[in-house]
Amino acid sequence: GQNIDQPTEMTATEGAIVQINCTYQTSGFNGLFWYQQHAGEAPTFLSYNVLDGLEEKGRFSSFLSRSKGYSYLLLKELQMKDSASYLCAVSDSWGKLQFGAGTQVVVTP
Amino acid sequence: DGGITQSPKYLFRKEGQNVTLSCEQNLNHDAMYWYRQDPGQGLRLIYYSQIVNDFQKGDIAEGYSVSREKKESFPLTVTSAQKNPTAFYLCASKATNEKLFFGSGTQLSVL
What are A18-54's pLDDT values in tens digits? Predict the structure, then answer.
């Protein structure tokens, strides 16, 4: 089966940087996703990593180390609208795609 | 426009009643998924399907049933055996090595 862990909540100041870690254990690996979710809404796609390394997309970057079962999402130049839940999801070799419990990021003025 | 459509947006279930949540996609995706989300929680996998006429149980399949008779459609039935059905239900689909597309969700409540 899969086990995906991420912190429950993180607080940061507007303009700062926050790093959300995600560790996983899975039988086979076929990619890791990060999604953003605002309350009452469907998740929106942020990033997809299948190979080791850093993927940068504007203010958001995501890193993957398959040997360590580890990923992080880096949010730079935080804005108030970045206050949301950030979900780490892992796909195994058989297409099963599971999510972690999510990290609630609170951005303060 | 291509996308994934869930209906209804809000649904109410009476005691002992089965209800069916609709999920349709026109993205030509092979894989489809159903997740349940409780307030303040993450998404938990109920069922998933990689191909027409085949589906697998996720982590919390008890009290739910699905069918995949057409590539475009993956309806979820919440049966009377599901004793705590109140939750936000999300349907999603994806192509191989691509991102997961979500529907807008169905909020199910018990009367």
Answer: 999 999 998 888 899 999 999 889 999 999 999 999 9
3-class secondary structure, A7:
coil
Backbone angles phi, psi at A83, to 5 degrees: -65, 115
Measured in angstroms, the CA of B4 and the nearest CA of chain A are apart by 12
Q: Do B102 and A99 touch (CB under 8 A)?
A: no
Three-class DSSP category at B67: coil
- Percent helix, strand, coil in chain B (nearest 5)? 0, 50, 50
The tokens describing B88, both together, are 């936000």
Helix H or strand E segment including A65 = strand A60-65
pLDDT in tens, B20-54: 999 999 999 999 999 999 988 889 999 999 999 99
